Amino acid sequence: MNPLEHSIVLIGMMGAGKSTVGAVLERRTGIPCVDLDEIFSRDGEAGFRDLEAKILADLPAGLRAIVVTGGGIILRPENRRKLEQLGTIVWLDGAPEVLLARATENRNRPLLNNAPDRRGFFLKLLNERRPLYEQLADFRVDTTHLNQLETADRVLRETAALPEGS
Fold first, then answer.
1. Collapsing DSSP states into helix, strand and coil, what is residue 69?
2. 44-79 tens-digit pLDDT
3. What is the CATH number of the domain that holds 96?
4. Which of 17, 26, 84, 131 could be disulfide-bonded to 33 (CB atoms 3.0-4.6 Å)?
5. pLDDT digits over 131-155, tens only?
6. Inter-axis angle of helices 77-86 and 118-136, nearest 10
7. Containing structural domain, residue 97
8. Which helix or strand (DSSP H or E) is residue 5 part of?
9. What is the C-alpha separation between 14 and 39, in angstroms, rounded?
10. Contact 25, 9 (CB under 8 A)
């Protein structure tokens, strides 16, 4: 599957850099970026999960886009099936403490900001989601020591290296 003919789907925890890397990929490839994660702050978690699932379901299978997802999109089986249809799934990951530090730098994290024990809550989410990310991803990029430009370069390099039909 050539990523320039199909979508590149970015999955991973908050703090992995999905939105910023998606924007860099859009600039570098000219492929439009669809950022599903932007809805959260407006509609809260329940509204976000439902709307995110609806928008995802409505994306056409032949879509050619950079698709940035919310960290919890992988929790619903129907979402996982749809993501697999869209294109190459890239899991942006990192060391838990680095992801948490990045996530808390951004004040626009309602799910994390409302938790009394941010670290404990974050690690709980990470432990629940990590096996699903691993199962779904075509490949993983460890962003621990990479900036968004280096991460985007790695994504482009890895997606170009995937064999036809993957």
1. coil
2. 566 667 777 788 878 877 778 999 998 999 999 999
3. 3.40.50.300
4. 26
5. 999 999 999 999 999 999 999 999 9
6. 50
7. 7-151
8. none
9. 14
10. no
